[in-house]
Design goal:
2 copies of one chain form a homodimer. Helices cover 37% and strands 17% of the residues of chain A. The first copy, chain A, is of the alpha+beta class. In chain A, the strands form 3 sheets. Chain A has an 8-stranded mixed beta sheet. In chain A, a hairpin with a 4-residue loop joins strand 15 and strand 16. Strand 3 of chain A pairs antiparallel with strand 3 of chain B.
Chain lengths: 481, 481
């Protein structure tokens, strides 16, 4: 081993989860998993690494920054299929559907796993983050979409959150905007990208961006990540590209129509009624409204309280592959944290890989963002360790007796550790238990050994009782219960 | 989306886990986790990506094939710190210990996660595979090592396996071999690499390799992976490097001494007694034997049955970083599958990152290999889905009624799906339930709706009963219990 020390840090945008965070994270994931399974979704896992063209769909304009992977002994051969880390769990699902024709249709799966994106890290935005997805593949039925909204609501309730709202819309309404407002079909992608920022920048800025004169050099550029000026991984770079403004040169009349549509408010029923009037004669919009009405009816049939969901015509969702209903959840008490759980219907994604068009709908939890939200809401309580009982070592020659106590406690299901720090002073052992917030400490010196007793200390109540050795397990369990 | 279809396959050595495998894998992982937590290990997670020098320790001779990662928009800058996917969970743990000085000492953690190695894939050997590790950092106490052996035994028992054996040895005995057998200290690494293959190639071949004339061009080359001749990812390449022989030019006398030591057999107590005679006067070997005796005493104190473990002087473990006791588990009924759970003490690894030498010991489960073993042993039973009840759709106009049944079942904790295949014929719905092995099917047509009843079909017993709608949940739960 070399004498020069290696810096023990992680690349920028990557981080460790220490036990204090991990234990609450695991509890959260277990609850989500329980709900997803109860809703009939089955587990799936896919590799971290995919072929690059699988991820991008071979789209030369694909503009997300990915992590390419290459073997350290590998030579680059021309025409070789490159590989990269996955950036979401939806594209791998589409590949799985095409690759494993033996899977049932419809196929309901959940997947929890890390994804990787190379964008510059910012506060709360990492390059490795976890997603937890549920998707139904192989049905056009709006029951599947309603079930996703229902699932989103039920998941939040199981996590102890009841101040949230799932807002949903339909891409078919957005896709009708060119016909409705009178602008060219080919601008819809750019317009949606601006509308997607409505929450952040407000309606006035949206109108401004839509009507500003067309920039000749490019359009839609604002969604691209800035070309990396440097490869530094320090995570300290500032200046995201979003502040840069680009115009689309839409006329004031067109923009006014769009604005009018976006400003439809009221209850879900009122919104649907008003939108219906406006959409009159535009088939794609009428279809979108019919689907929304169907989802609303199903949600009412299963009794998901009205307060948890609602139609919102401003919801767009950034991803290009959505084709129908789109969903996003916001937390009432943390409006600025953005959406923690979102998704939509994507009926064309699988056709990237096979001739058949296979419909699909689903939603994805941003696990790290949701976890940060739960922490802010104060619904998670964590301790440094999961250990429930510590057996101290008063006299190293009695080690075998201590180990038999550890064994008895573990066999009774108590998460138990024996002290093996280097500092053997009693004070040091108690300090260890205190700092680790271990609720029960077992103490046995030579005198207790002779008596056939053990001292059991309740660290929370700061009380200590001597019990017969044979009652150790019973006593510890009663303190923990 | 382009008209040319993308091939929906995965890079060679990577694979999907479909629901049938995932559900049993998850059960296995949950059991392991329960045992590890009961033994006082806390959860930790580290990033998939680490700095390359963190993984290699800056060792220019590091010869494992790793996956380097690079952002797709990144330029290569000279002197830039490269990144790669982790190849195990132990090196990241050592980094965590150095990076997070606030962690307690000793620190007991478990970690479950994927690791990546670029070697050519073979049958049963993948480039992405999962490890499940438990390690104790910060104590020289042999109690920690004994606890690892105990943990290995308890884990297997919780998985329903009782025909296994944890064999253990001490690197300190191996490190005494130069003094004991009379060969240069600097050859020990090469000699250990040959001894590590003993199980595979047999003692005669080991002797042959040790005594064959020294190859002048290099030594120890046989452990290196062949330079990749091509970058093909088809996973079909054959010819691993292991068949190539290299000599070390040890004299027959030296080799005979090594052989004599390796051939010590008998019960653990007999082996320790014989080795004690041979190690007489070689301090490092005497120290190693003292440690082994201590571990044996602790295992007996906690009552781990003798049949589950034993000292075996042929156990070497390939990894260079071990410094003390080394452990490996073999399955009695599957001797050829190799070790599924192994580890050892590594007191110098953390010093790669910091001036202090921090002792550590632990073991790692090869999850995929263990899972394959459990499948071969017939201890895992899997079904295509976790869904317990399917609500069929007899009449789409009754959808709201069906959804309310789904809701009631889910609220009662039954994993429930509603049928939304495209083929609505009753036969198709039943065929779906049959192929998915869903145990209970709920059927309700117009007549039942009028009657206020539901048909509940037990798919395993092939019986069907009409029950009042209000008794649906009770009936389904009784069939499932």
């Amino acid at each position: 081993m070399s004498e020069t020390k290696v810096q023990p840090d992680s690349p920028g945008g990557f981080r460790d989860y220490l036990p204090r965070q991990m234990q609450v994270r695991q509890k959260m994931l277990a609850k989500i998993r329980e709900v997803f399974e109860r809703f009939g979704f089955d587990p799936l896992e896919t590799p971290a690494t995919e072929y690059f063209d699988v991820l991008t769909g071979g789209d030369p304009d694909f503009d997300m920054v990915l992590y390419k992977t290459r073997r350290s002994n590998g030579r680059v051969t021309s025409g070789q299929r490159e590989t990269a880390l996955r950036f979401d769990l939806t594209v791998p699902l589409a590949r799985v559907i095409a690759a494993h024709q033996e899977l049932p249709r419809p196929f309901k799966r959940y997947q929890c796993g890390s994804v990787w994106r190379g964008e510059k890290p910012q506060v709360g935005r990492y390059r490795e983050f976890m997603q937890f997805d549920a998707d139904t593949v192989g049905t056009f039925s709006m029951v599947a979409d309603a079930e996703i909204v229902w699932l989103m609501c039920e998941t939040m309730r199981s996590l102890g959150v009841d101040r949230f709202r799932v807002r949903f819309n339909n891409r078919k309404l957005s896709n009708g905007l060119p016909a409705y407002a009178g602008f060219p079909e080919e601008s819809i992608g750019d317009v949606l990208r601006v509308l997607d920022k409505l929450d952040k920048i407000g309606i006035d800025e949206v109108v401004k961006q839509l009507t500003a004169p067309l920039r000749t050099e490019s359009t839609g550029e604002e969604m691209k990540t800035q070309p990396a000026e440097d490869e530094s991984d320090d995570g300290e770079d500032a200046a995201p590209a979003e502040a840069v403004e680009y115009g689309f040169g839409l006329s004031p009349q067109v923009t006014a129509r769009i604005k009018e549509f976006l400003e439809i408010t009221g209850t879900t029923d009122e919104i649907l009624a008003q939108a219906d009037v406006m959409a009159n004669g535009i088939p794609i919009m009428e279809e979108g409204l019919t689907e929304l009405r169907e989802i609303v009816a199903y949600l009412r049939a299963v009794g998901v309280p009205d307060g948890f969901w609602g139609v919102d015509l401003t919801v767009t969702r950034g991803l290009a592959y959505y084709t129908g209903p789109v969903f996003e959840m916001v937390l009432t008490d943390l409006p600025n944290i953005g959406s923690v759980f979102s998704g939509g219907r994507y009926d064309n994604l699988v056709s990237r890989f096979m001739p058949d068009s296979i419909p699909a709908t689903g939603a994805s939890i941003g696990v790290d963002r949701l976890f940060a939200a739960l922490e802010q809401l104060g619904t998670v309580v964590s301790t440094p360790t999961l250990v429930q009982a510590l057996v101290t070592v008063m006299d190293p020659t009695l080690m075998n007796a201590y180990l038999s106590m550890v064994r008895d406690l573990r066999e009774a299901g108590v998460r138990t550790a024996i002290y093996f720090g280097q500092e053997m002073a009693f004070k040091a052992q108690m300090a260890f238990a205190t700092s680790q917030e271990i609720p029960v400490v077992v103490i046995c010196g030579t005198r207790e050994m002779v008596d056939g007793t053990v001292q059991v200390r309740d660290m929370r109540a700061r009380t200590q009782t001597a019990v017969p050795r044979a009652s150790l397990v019973e006593r510890v369990r009663s303190l923990l219960s």
